[in-house]
């Protein structure tokens, strides 16, 4: 077997797949920004666009999965190269999930547009989503540049997202206790907050895959956990 | 290349991996039952056990992933066999996620044990979880027997889970509007209901992988969707 030839053919195939991943990442970033903008402005038209565009992201995920399977089948990569492809498949799946959460934010926007508005919360949710989009941007840069340090930094930043979620959860409870008319809209806003926090978790696992690609081992979960009475709400899921 | 020899070696390796998957599936079924039982009885000790056992499930997922990667690297399976391994890896990931949701149910049990009890809801959640566990049992049987019909049946049954979730969501809203002391516990119970509905979605994607393994193509999503005003809550995520 001509290792050299197989290696170079593998590399050029992988290069093409990474280009697809970056394209997909760009679409997912756009989905996060547009979804949170549509929520902030209760813009049902923009929300509709986000939901339509998610089909493109889903299709891209299938293409990348197919390409990865074809790459493995055709090039029979070595154990090391195989791990790279499997990591790329995981990143691919993370991106698709983040896109789904953005789509769900857009779906709930259409529901919230017909309910009692909850002042302030939508702006806070938009800031939280913006933060997640910036983390994703850096995670994708870390992926392309194989930059473990930048990826490690994202693991830290995900804690801020968790803090934002915890603060919002308490804010929603206060709203609901103040006035029962806030209960239903706050249930939806709470889901959006939780899903945005989950987007952050998926960005984090993209970053973890990058660290794995560069260092060969997954980072230890060194995040301090409270006991099950003092545990922060963001740790419950 | 001796196709015959490679095929048989591949088959026996795959056989071993499937045994691991079934072992994992059994642990996940147990986790669902124990978590919902601990919730029903607010049994913090049992909840603690569920959370401890989730580490075993997570470890098994890693082992299966490693074994699948090794199988691909050593046997260079044909495109068809490769798809089987990739499907098994997807099922593996679905099982791990379901285990996570059971763990989360157990975590919230520990929180709910210190709050105003919400009558009836915990029993309904246990019935819903029991239904999901039975679906998972059948999905795993369908996987082992490569039974596409049984798998298709699971896709139908997931609609019942969605209905149970929608009913519970409305019940929680009623509780919260009745008495503000119910708001915080109901927020947690609602998450448990949503996560149980998501368990059903993951069981469904296990069933879809089985259909893919048998028929070579994924089932179309024929589930009727409402427009974005009438859409059921279970379709919002």
TrEMBL record, chains A, B:
Record-level GO cellular component terms: cytoplasm
Residue span, PhoU domain: 21-109, 125-210
Subcellular location per the Swiss-Prot or TrEMBL entry: Cytoplasm
InterPro entries with a match to the protein in the record: PhoU, PhoU-like_sf, PhoU_dom
Keywords of the record: Coiled coil, Cytoplasm, Phosphate transport, Transport
Record GO biological process: intracellular phosphate ion homeostasis; negative regulation of phosphate metabolic process; phosphate ion transport
Coiled coil stretches, renumbered: 32-59
Region: Disordered, residue numbers: 218-237
Pfam families, alphabetized: PhoU
Biased composition (Basic and acidic residues): 220-237
Family: Belongs to the PhoU family.
Assembly information from the UniProt record: Homodimer.
Designated name of the protein: Phosphate-specific transport system accessory protein PhoU
Organism: Shimia gijangensis
Upper taxonomic lineage: Bacteria, Pseudomonadati, Pseudomonadota, Alphaproteobacteria, Rhodobacterales
